[in-house]
Structure prediction request, 234 residues.
Amino acid sequence: MAKQYPTPNAPRLTKLVLGVSVAVVSGITAPAALADSHSPVAAPPAESVSTAKNAPVAKTPLEIQAEKLPKVSAGQVLELASKQIGVRENAQGGGTKFHSWYMASQRARETVARDGGNVRAYANAPWCAMFVSWVGEQAGIRPTMGWDAYTVTHAKWFKANKHWGQAAKPGAVVYFDWNGSKDISAIDHVGFVKKDNGDGTITTIEGNTGEGRVEQRVRPKSQVVGYGYPVYAG
Prediction:
């Protein structure tokens, strides 16, 4: 069973903050600095697209953000996540490249400034959300993937940005409560949806599994709280 994430000096992380970086994956280079907000993203002046009936449909702030980012498909993100299968934590429950990346990020520094403690406390922390965040970073789409070390805050960010739902789409970020509730505050674990198997289960790619590594798993939908939807090309 995946471990719940504690803050360095408090029981939980409660916010997301800004960060910048460079990412290259599958020949795609991300901008050197990515505007990123983890309260609801502030929308630029309203834009719209037309449906087949010519009714204007407003774009979400994340969809507008995506126009400035590399065009990355759900398939590319899942390929990147799949390449991490087998990465394993050390005997202390940390030591992965996902931990190292998060500890070096502006996100970790600002979280420590907000919650207390020190960045080193992340070295052996539960890392399922760090894994998802790392994949978004490497793919160059962090502003529409979000990032955090705490699953509840990450899920709330998707919901606040109106990219939250109950459909198991490939590439969606899936949040679990092992007790089967639909309560975001009860989320225990996070990963990526690889496939809806059509039999009440989904195939996933997750970090920080019960084996302490990145694995492909099959999970019952009864344990799913909901899904966050990054903005993908195609």
